[in-house]
Amino acid sequence: MYRFFVPPTAAVVTAIVAAGLFTAPARLASQTPASLMAGASPPEMSALEALDDLADEIRGMSMTLWEYSETALPEHRSAEYLAGLLEAEGFEVETGVAGMPTAFTATYRHGSGGPVLGVLAEYDALPGVGNEPVPHRASRADGITSGHGCGHNLFGAGSVGAAIAIKRAMADQDIAGEVRLFGTPAEETVVGKVYMANAGAFDGVDATLVWHPMTETRVTNASTQAMNNFTVEFRGQAAHSAADTWNGRSALDAVEMMNYGANLMREHVQPSTRIHYVIPNAGEAPNVVPEYAKVWYYMRDTLRTNVKEHYAWLLDIADAAAQATRTEHEVSLITGVHALLLNRPLQEAMQANLEAVGGPNFPDVFQAWGREMQTGLDIDPVGLDVEVQPLALGATLAQGGSTDVAEVSWITPTVQLEITSAPKGVPWHS
């Protein structure tokens, strides 16, 4: 149940940072909501009051997105739902951005001039991780097999709530400027923001705010891995596997040969490199030589230059596998991303407001829920972390994952907030 509690916390910090970016950033020192209100600037106070009114609605958004649990790109109900809420609030909504039916922008402008502030929202779920809201493995009673194993239901709800609060504060305080909520699909496959960036959706934005569920509360101070996401399809010749095998040309053999080459390649790349794959198509039956097979790769590294070099190496391996098996092959580059760029001034502004608000204050029943999950996983049952982590003097080591938020950071200054949303130590994407 904890998953429906966090978004207001994330929305509060995002909204008051936004209020500070529109005016003069306030350095709030208090840890209590009452004195936070007392020390806040008028724009920040207006945003906080709006969020207080929106708290139940934000939690409701989170629950609705959790119920939908739509995977990357077909998030039709989720996108329509969030876009509809923003349109009802007075935002101008554009759907089908960058040719993706589930991508949208929602824009509110007040007055003339002023900065353009972006807020990112995600809402895609993961396949195969659907679970009842209980601290142990249990299939969903409604039969939905996908689930928000990365907390994007919280992400979407908190970001939309923050955008609405920013809009209300702008109107209430007569603040000139523009806020744009970007509904970005398919982050889990690192697609949505890449295509939106290529279409110019983030051009002209002065700063962008984003948050993500995590097991600790902090301002993101680590980059991510650059990545190429691609498939290789092999086509051969079907034949009877026993009676006519000499006339067959196995596409599956080509996939296996490519994967073998890639696995040998691992010995000769940097420790920062990650190569992983799945085989979505591997033939239909053992007694038929597979005429079609497909392998799906992620090629990652902390440096974009290494990704390009190793991607070219993998393409050579694919070509060699096709030649060796007398098959044909086709490579499809789905998406590619850089490593995330960090912005120190925005980090410091976010950290000041995060320390003012403090970490999420989970009720005892939520902490008990978290400890039960940890106990079942043989993890130290410490519950959910409520501390705010300090901002290190310099950037920390790059995280192992990749994100299409990186493409936004190369276009407009971007800062990310992480809020505890799951028990410490539990496996992500699970």
Describe it for me?
- With 430 residues, the protein is of the alpha/beta class.
- 37% of the residues lie in helices and 18% in strands.
- The radius of gyration is 24 Å and the shape is globular.
- The model is unreliable at 24-35 (pLDDT under 50).
Outline the secondary-structure elements:
Layout: H1 7-22, H2 33-39, H3 42-68, H4 76-88, E1 92-95, E2 104-110, E3 116-121, H5 152-173, E4 177-183, H6 192-198, E5 207-214, E6 218-219, E7 226-235, H7 251-265, E8 274-281, E9 292-301, H8 304-325, E10 328-337, H9 344-357, H10 364-376, H11 405-409, E11 414-420
Parallel strand pairs: 3-4, 3-5, 5-11
Antiparallel strand pairs: 1-2, 2-4, 6-11, 7-9, 7-10, 8-9
Helix pairs in contact: 1-3, 1-5, 1-9, 3-5, 7-8
Helix content: 25-40%
Q: List low-confidence stretches.
A: 24-35
Overall average pLDDT: 91
**How large is the count of helical segments?**
11
Q: What is the helix/strand order?
A: HHHHEEEHEHEEEHEEHEHHHE
Q: What is the makeup of the main sheet?
A: 7 strands, mixed
Q: What's the total number of strands?
A: 11
Strand content: 15-25%
Shape: globular
Q: What's the end-to-end separation, in Å? A: 16 Å
Strand order of the largest sheet: 1-2-4-3-5-11-6
User: Based on helices, strands and strand pairing, what is the structural class?
Assistant: alpha/beta
How big is the Rg? 24 Å
